[in-house]
């Protein structure tokens, strides 16, 4: 049976690819797309979700806008990676896909209430999920799993210690990790095994349908922007790794550990402290993804793009 998911995202290039993967693969049923401010402001991430869905012909899935700001900190965006629009690289037309009038937090809660076994897949800052937990605690207790892209057990990509999605709203991340719900964290340690190499770009270009052409153009912009920004880390395709974990859990190996989020305004604000050695004595509260079968991941991504006509 297909896994029912809600994708909460801030498109964003890798978010766009996560959306395309989630819609195309028969092992998941994409119930809703919700947007949050992150890679760009909320108006831009929401427009981008609708743009990608329009090109891909995803018309039956509701898309709703959520939080425009983090819970407590000042807003952080990433134009150096995703450009001024948040999704540079493809000449999008006006989107045909409209906006659901509900707030994302209400769409999430109504969807979880109406269906059994819903997995949330947040691939942006965790603001919407934290607000949903606060506003609809009874309904949210039904969530099957929260498979999120974010955090790191080692180096950060936004500060030396913190990853973007968690650093952009550490207080929200703290609420999610301490919620008692099942959490699977797909951190940088894992996503840096999903690199957009020139060979991968060629393979995406060779798929040859319109959606894959858009994906190739977006990936081209994304890898160039990351190269220009640091020239060191290379372009990792973060967000689709979380979707891949839902589709084929066996290609994303996880370990059960305790994770806490640094919320003090310190040098490590927004860091995820992952007790991989079990030395804290704190109860494990999350599965943390560690090893990716990169070949299987890219096969999955390429098959998904090929499925669009
Ligand atoms: C995360 O930050 C964003 O820029 C990406 O979309 C991804 O979700 C990686 O740190
Ligand atoms: Ca993202």
Quote the CATH topology. Answer: Inosine-uridine Nucleoside N-ribohydrolase, Chain A
CATH class: Alpha Beta
Strand order of the largest sheet: 3-2-1-4-5-6-10-7
Shape: globular
The helix/strand order is: EHEHEHHEHHEHHEHHHHEEEEH
Distance between the termini: 24 Å
Low-confidence stretches: none
Mean pLDDT: 97
Helix content: 40-55%
Query: What is the name of the CATH superfamily?
Result: Ribonucleoside hydrolase-like
What is the correct CATH architecture? Alpha-Beta Complex
How much of the polypeptide forms β-strand, as a percent range? 15-25%
SS-derived structural category = alpha/beta
Rg over alpha carbons = 18 Å
Strand count, sense and barrel status of the largest sheet are: 8 strands, mixed
| Small molecules bound | beta-D-ribofuranose, calcium ion
Instruction: Please indicate the count of domains.
Output: 1
Overall strand count: 10
Question: Helix count?
Answer: 13
How would you describe this protein?
The structure is a single chain. With 309 residues, this protein is of the alpha/beta class. It is 40% helix and 17% strand. The protein has helices at residues 13-24, 42-56, 79-82, 104-114, 127-135, 137-140, 164-167, 170-177, 188-191, 198-207, 210-229, 238-247, 294-307; strands spanning 3-9, 28-35, 63-65, 118-122, 145-149, 183-186, 252-257, 259-261, 272-274, 286-292. The strands form two sheets. An eight-stranded mixed β-sheet has the order 3-2-1-4-5-6-10-7, with helices on both faces. A two-stranded antiparallel sheet has the order 8-9. Strand 1, helix 1 (13-24) and strand 2 (28-35) form a beta-alpha-beta unit. Helix 1 (13-24) packs antiparallel against helix 11, helix 1 packs parallel to helix 12 (238-247) and helix 5 (127-135) crosses helix 8 (170-177). The protein starts with a strand and ends with a helix. Calcium ion binds next to helix 1. Calcium ion binds at residues 9-10, 12, 14-15, 38-39, 123-124, 239.
């Amino acid at each position: 049976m297909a896994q029912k998911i809600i994708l909460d995202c801030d498109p964003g290039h890798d978010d766009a690819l996560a959306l395309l993967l989630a819609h195309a693969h028969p092992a998941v049923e994409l119930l809703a797309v919700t947007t949050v401010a992150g890679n760009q402001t909320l108006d831009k991430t929401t427009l981008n979700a609708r743009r990608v869905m329009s090109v891909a012909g995803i018309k039956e899935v509701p898309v709703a806008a959520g939080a425009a700001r983090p819970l407590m900190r000042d807003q952080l965006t990433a134009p150096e990676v995703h450009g001024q629009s948040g999704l540079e690289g493809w000449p999008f037309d006006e989107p045909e896909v409209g906006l659901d009038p509900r707030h994302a937090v209400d769409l999430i809660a109504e969807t979880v209430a109406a269906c059994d076994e819903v997995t949330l897949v947040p691939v942006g800052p965790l603001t919407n999920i934290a607000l949903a937990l606060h506003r609809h605690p009874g309904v949210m207790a039904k969530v099957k799993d929260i498979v999120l892209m974010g955090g790191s057990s080692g180096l950060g990509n936004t500060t030396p210690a913190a990853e973007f999605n968690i650093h952009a709203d550490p207080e929200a991340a703290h609420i999610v990790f301490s919620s008692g719900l099942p959490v699977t964290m797909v951190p940088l340690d894992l996503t840096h095994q999903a690199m957009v190499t020139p060979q991968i770009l060629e393979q995406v270009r060779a798929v040859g349908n319109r959606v894959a052409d858009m994906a190739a153009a977006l990936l081209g912009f994304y890898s160039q922007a990351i190269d220009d920004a640091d020239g060191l880390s290379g372009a990792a395709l973060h967000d689709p790794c979380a979707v891949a974990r839902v589709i084929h859990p066996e290609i994303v190996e996880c370990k059960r550990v305790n994770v806490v989020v640094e919320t003090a305004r310190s040098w490590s604000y927004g860091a995820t402290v992952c007790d991989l050695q079990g030395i804290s004595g704190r109860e494990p509260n999350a599965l943390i993804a560690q090893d990716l079968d990169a070949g299987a991941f890219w096969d999955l991504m390429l098959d998904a793009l090929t499925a669009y006509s």
